[in-house]
Amino acid sequence: MPSLALRLDDTESIMPLDRDDESGYASGSSSDSILPDVFFTKPHLTFLNRQLQNLEPQGKTFDASGDKLMLMDYRLLEILRWSTTTLPSLYQTTAFGLTGLVIMDMLSKLKIPRPQTVDLIFLDTLHHFDETLALVDHVQSRYPSINIHVYQPAGVTNAKEFAQTHGERLWETNDQLYDWLAKVEPAQRAYRELGVNAVLTGRRRSQGGKRGDLDVIEIDEAGLIKINPLANWSFQQVQAYVKANNVPYNELLDRGYKSIGDWHSTQPIKEGEDERAGRWKGRQKT
Predict the structure, then answer these.
(1) pLDDT for residue 127
(2) Which of 16, 118, 135, 238 has the fewest CB atoms lying closer than 10 Å?
């Protein structure tokens, strides 16, 4: 497999991105410096994002049988086609939030031939809601051709073992260490073992915070290419797609949750609050 991690022209530079996560998953520093090279210049990257930043979801089409109206975004499909045909070793990182489910459903409709098929990486922190784990099973049944790679914290297989090894309620006593053990290290291990060079994420500008300035194409400090295909979508647009296409989703969304991570750090939100306001509520992190 040829090398593929973005390296900028020697005369250009790009600042490292802050580490961020999608539905509980660490990004940014979660990749590894062993990633090899593909060449983009900084002006080319700027051009691509300028072309993509104003795209809005639009369009309706019929499915292959011609008898069911679906909300589709032709330009989003083009982004996904470009990603799958241009970027070898492309994976989707997801915690099965709504946006990730939309991407997964759209990819299934592209009917991508192997080896271009996009596998999923799911980081099982051992502290997900039961509803989230049930959704994983539902997704596997609904989309049998999708391959899901599950990664857990090293050396443990359940929450009890995690607490015995690293201490009770580590997310309260040392949240940074908890993030490293439950999210960052497993992500690094997944990228290394699977040879990941590029990822599709479910991050959107409408989620607020640091994501307000999100580009469709990003590069982390180790050169990992990150594609955010739904960067321009709102939560309402994501919901509309899920409903129109009967995409399975987390039952917690019907109980006031919008962004769902670990059970210990996720709460329902109130009317008018930011989408991710229920994540790590009262803490300086989302």
Answers:
(1) 97
(2) 16
